[in-house]
Amino acid sequence: MAIKRIAVNELHIGMYIQKLGGSWIQHPFVRSSFLLTDPNDIKRIKQAGIKELWIDDEKGELPETETVESPDSPQETIESTDADADPVQDKPHSDVKAKTDSTSIENEIERAKKLCQDAKPQIISMFNDIRLGKAIDPQTTLPLVGEINSLVQRNSAAILSVARLKTHDDYTYMHSVAVCALMLSLANQMGLDNEQTRLAGIGGLMHDLGKAVMPLEILNKPGKLSDAEYAVMKKHTLVGAKILEDSGAEAEVIDIALNHHEKINGTGYPNQLPAEKISLLARMAAICDVYDAVTSERSYKKPWEPANSIREMAKWDGHFDKQIFNAFVKSVGIYPIGSLVRLSSQRLAVVIETHPGSLLSPIVKVFFSIRSKAPIPIQIIDLAAKNCKERIEGPEEPRDWDFKSLDNLWL
């Protein structure tokens, strides 16, 4: 394969694009490599502000003019283009997280709420098109994935917490947004490169497309599925993968849709794959999918408290990749925003902000006395402060205290 670097003005129909320069968030395409056949694609590339790109002259035509080579490396190949990557994504995780300290959590929560509101119609439209048998274009989701990633980069706790809140009526649609955000946050925590992060985000957003053609009476059933109904529902992975394959989605995105219900111990579906056959991105998606499912309100169950969900999932031996799960815990926090916790002073509090460098000591809003079993004046405490003697003894379930809703304490 002969990879050549060219200026965007040299681009013409018949070239095979191997990589577009700049951050993937700028790109108007889901696929990173494709044969250029549509003149409108050239216009879209230029409108995105992309100045240069890499072509494969063995798969497509050569430029009509001299190729533009890097002055530092005349034989530069696709593997040596890290300097063109998104500077935020390429920073070590600790540096990225440090940036959130200067970002108002309240402002980020408002941004996250607006993004979720704006994303819902787009996801619903995509599901409806599939139900009607219309073809979908995965490329149309890339701007949304880019917006979600921007929020994750600024303050992942805000978007992850807001995306977790959904009613059972809009679960199917907003679950896609939540898993996308979780995948991007996890990819960032694991230090994946721009390309893998992009694929993780797209795969997370589209992992459950197969549910669009599942019978609504099964999809929305307010109770446990029968064995026969469960057998039908499990087909959503195969159907979703086929939909994505027909739409021209990348292999990694198809793989996420197909294998996000596979388990490390080989008991998952649809193919009971052994651990070594499950890809990295599918292993990540398995964790993100389950976490959002158990922490969300469903037609047949109440949501689990986030911190308790982490503890319970850690007990499921053979279900998840342990190393990836540990990274996931770091990405969402041991006590995510919105968690109800019991303090050493025997008071209850809600987590309102997390400290990436101190997972056990978030900022909390104290509001209830366990001893008197009554509300108390609200107090905000930074458990990571040097002079703070309070500590978290453990998570609590809101329903055990008959709390109807604690969201107004942090939203």
UniProtKB/TrEMBL annotation:
It holds the Pfam family HD_5. SUPFAM superfamilies: HD-domain/PDEase-like (SSF109604). GO terms for molecular function: phosphoric diester hydrolase activity. SMART domains: HDc. This is HDIG domain-containing protein. It comes from Methylophaga sulfidovorans. Residues 59-104 are annotated as: Disordered. Residues 88-100 have a biased composition (Basic and acidic residues). Residues 151-344 form the HD-GYP domain.
